[in-house]
Amino acid sequence: MKLKNLVFFQLILWTLFHTELTAQTLQIICEEPLLEYNDHVGNEWGFGIESNKVVHTFDDTILLPFAGKSKIRFFVQEIDTYTEEVSQWLEIDPSILEYGKTYTKRLEFVVRENMGRYAGNTAKWVLQFRYQKINGRA
Q: What is this structure's pTM?
């Protein structure tokens, strides 16, 4: 019984002092997607963020846990029978971000219609967002 208590106590101490256990959290605050132009590409659109194989809608506020440098995929979809999708990857290393400092990023996406009489026409969207490290260790 005493050995179990000693092992449990060692496990608690290791958990408290092991620096790699605390993940960093990146807060992404999404702004309203801005349509710069649409030359007959479509009327139904989807916007999203993918990180660690988890997809989030591009809306209000998203919290992403990080254990280190990670890539985030931002995408715009024109939703119809044959969906068009354009994406961009952004690599963020939370260890170089200042705690609580807000950073701003603007990504531009040109979506090209791939089928029908408007094939080749384009639409341009801008996704702008703010992000900051809100907790964790560098």
A: 0.77
36-89, pLDDT tens digit by residue?
999 999 899 999 999 888 899 988 789 888 877 888 999 999 998 888 999 999
- The CATH number linked to 42 is 2.60.40
Q: What is the pLDDT of residue 16?
A: 46
Q: Would 10 be classed as within a structural domain?
A: no
Neighbour tally for 121: CB within 10 Å: 16
Are 56 and 15 contacting, i.e. CB atoms less than 8 angstroms apart? no
CB 85 within 8 A of CB 75: yes
- 36 contact partners, CB below 8 Å, separation of at least 6: 108, 124, 125, 126
Alpha-carbon distances of 97 from 24, 53, 87, rounded to whole Å = 11, 23, 24
Domain total in the chain: 1
Cα 84 to Cα 38, 77, 126: the distances in Å are: 14, 6, 16
Cβ neighbourhood burial of 31 (10 Å; 0-12, 13-18, 19+): middle
Give Rg (Cα) of the chain: 21
